[in-house]
Every structure is written in C-alpha cells, then in structure tokens.
Amino acid sequence: MRIALATCATVPDWEVDDRPLVRALLERGADVVQPAWGDPDVDWSSHDACLIRTTWDYQEHCTEYLAWAERAGAAAPLFNPAAVVRWNTHKQYLRELEALGVRIAPTEWLERGQDVDVAAVLAARGWERAFVKPCVGATARETLRFAADADGIAQAQAHLERLLLEEDLLLQPYLASVETEGELSVLFVDGEPTHGVQKLPVAGDYRVQDDFGALDRPYEFEPGELDLARSIVAPVEDRFGGTLLYARVDFLRADDGGLLLNELELVEPSLFLRHGPGAAARLAESLLARL
Questions:
Q1: How far is CA 272 from CA 16, 183, 291, in A?
Q2: pLDDT reading at 14 higher than 70
Q3: Could you give the percent of the chain with pLDDT greater than 90?
Q4: All domains of the chain, ordered by start, with CATH?
Q5: More exposed terminus of the chain, fewer Cβ within 10 Å: N or C?
Q6: DSSP assigned state of 220
Q7: In sequence order, which residues have a C-beta less than 8 Å from that of residue 64 and are 6 or more positions away?
Q8: What are the residues facing 147 on neighbouring strands?
Q9: pLDDT at res. 243
C-alpha cells in the first residue's frame, strides 16, 4: 500500500507533527512518500491514497490548489475529498454553519470590490477593538487587530481597501481571550474526538501558530464541550455524505465564557499528533481501513 502525504516545497524545518503518523503507517506495512502538491512531475495515480497534510502554501495559490485537489482525487482516494477541500478553503463555510445554529463571533462579511467605512461599522456594532482576516487564508496571513481609535481605524481602512481589491474578508470583534487562553482545538479521527490542544501565543500577540513562537500543549475538554465539537462536525459530514477522516475544531472563548467556533479545519491542519497518544495509530488504521 503506497500512501502519499501531500506537502509543499516550503515546509519549515521545525515541523515534526506528522512523524508519528509516518511511523504508524510504516508499522502497518504501508510505503509512505511525501510529494509536494505543486510538483508537476508527481503521478498521483501511482499512490493508493493521498492524505493532505502540510500543504501550507495553498492560500497563495488557491485556484491552482483546488484544481490539484480535483486531479489528485480523480487519480486516487483523497482525504479529505476534493469537494470538502473546495468548501473548506473559503471561510464562507462559517456563515453556513452559523445558519445551522453554530455560534461564531459576530461577523461582517466583506466581499471583494466592496466599499467599507470601518469607523461606521465599528460604531454600529459597538466594537472597541476589531479583527480582520481574509476568507482564504492560513498562518495569520494578512490578519490585523486594531482599536477603534483614529490611528487604528486609519490603519484598518487602508488594510481593507488594499485587500478588498483582490479578495473577500471577515471583520469581527477582537476576542482578547486569545492572548490569555489562546485557541482551543478538538482533534477528530473518523468522526470521534481523539485529543485536545491549547495553542498559546507569545505575550501580547494573538497569533497561535508555531511560526510566531506560539506554544502548544495538551488540553482536556469537558464532556459538554466535546459534544459541542461533535455537533459542529456532524452536519458537515451529513452535507458530504460520509464521516470525515480527520477534522480540527478550533474554538475561542467569548466574553461570556462560552466557546465560539473560530475555524473548522478540514484541509491541511496540524493534527498535533504528538499530543494525542494513540491518535496517529488510529488515523493510520482508519485510513488503511478505508482502502
């Protein structure tokens, strides 16, 4: 069984999260290769399956990436499938989940080409601090937090006017809990939670990625919080007609203490397998069982 773990040409040297998965697959008799998704010389039909892993430059080449997912998925089983990839690479999916009752941060959806008066939006919403991020993005690309003062609004107005020429954006209130509690993630394999992770930024920052020096560690969710995560994943599985091989549900803490869905990561999330004893083995076994 030949398994491709799709990556990219720019994976940082410190990335070690998939090593437990590689070991688990090798222990179960699989041959593991790690081709870059953008390599035109790769024959994706030469693999028995492709598992999308560290394709962490996709946000800069989204059209090409979606076309690759279609080709790779036609050549061999792709996990998660190309239809899921297409749906999940644009954060409009959050709007769909909100309509189903999932709680997200209050959001102004800004479309490419739209004129936006940042000061007016913040005044109408009553937000003292706000946050901007692209609808297609990863690793905190082009994100901005700002205060509702003259300097902050001027900075944000320029930021939005530049980005809205080319892409859709989200404008939300800034959740200060990210600086103290960080982002909390439930990891799923084959439809069930396997472990939890807390990602903490460096002091004063909001970026929870390793690229910016953030810390990640195991986190124990309450049973009700795990049920909340399940209730988010379930309708997506219904939408696509089957259990997702893997998923990561990212939460931020609201001011009232409740959890808000920040992201549902179904394409290329770090699965923090080093923090989940048995998770790599379960992922390897679930993948091979599907084949």
A1: 9, 13, 24
A2: no
A3: 91
A4: 2-84 (3.40.50.20), 92-103+177-270 (3.30.470.20), 108-173 (3.30.1490)
A5: C
A6: -
A7: 38
A8: 129
A9: 97
